[in-house]
Amino acid sequence: MLGIPLSLGILSGATEDWVRRADLYREAAAKSGHQAGQLDIAVASHGFVGADGAEAKRRYFEYESEAFAVYAAEHGSSSARGRSREAFDSNAGSGGMIFAGGPDEIADRLVDFHQHLGHSRHILQMNLGYITQAEWLDAIELLGTKVAPQVRASALIPEARSQ
């Protein structure tokens, strides 16, 4: 209602879940007199980019699962196993909210998600404590040299092409 930007921290779910939340934000803003072009939505989700998409998913699952298990144990959860591989695969696939895989897959998924949500910024949180520095630096390089140019070149995001 105030027209302030919305930032979504996403750990799981499906595209439709988050589009519904963004639609509620836009509806409330419109009822308060704010124009759609003035509304900014940012997303932060887990992700990891690797040259080999299957290997990137395998490694990221291990790191994320370990981090979730440590968090659960530190906070007294009776389930210190973290996310199951089945749940991870569901969330790391098309329409899911974990953006782990190869550069082309991640670029395609980011553009597809933007087409549905219309967000202006997407942050991939790759810095789980168990990823090695070399893996992290490789992922950042792929994100900057392979993924970002494809996303910027997308006709769906014209303002990004000029940045």
Main attributes of the structure:
single chain; 163 residues; TIM Barrel; 4-stranded parallel sheet; 4 strands
Structure, described:
Helix content is 53%, strand content 13%. Strand 1 (6-10), helix 1 (15-31) and strand 2 form a beta-alpha-beta unit. The model has no long low-confidence stretch (mean pLDDT 87). It is an alpha/beta fold. It has one domain: TIM Barrel. Strands 1, 2, 3 and 4 form a four-stranded parallel beta sheet that branches. The chain has helices at 15-31, 53-74, 85-91, 103-117, 133-153, 158-161; strands at 6-10, 41-49, 99-101, 121-125. The protein starts with 5 loop residues before the first strand and ends with a helix.
How many domains comprise the coordinates? 1
Task: Give the low-pLDDT segments.
Answer: none
Number of helices: 6
Assign the CATH class.
Alpha Beta
Give the termini distance in whole angstroms: 30 Å
CATH fold call = TIM Barrel
Mean pLDDT, to the nearest integer, reads: 87
Molecular shape: globular
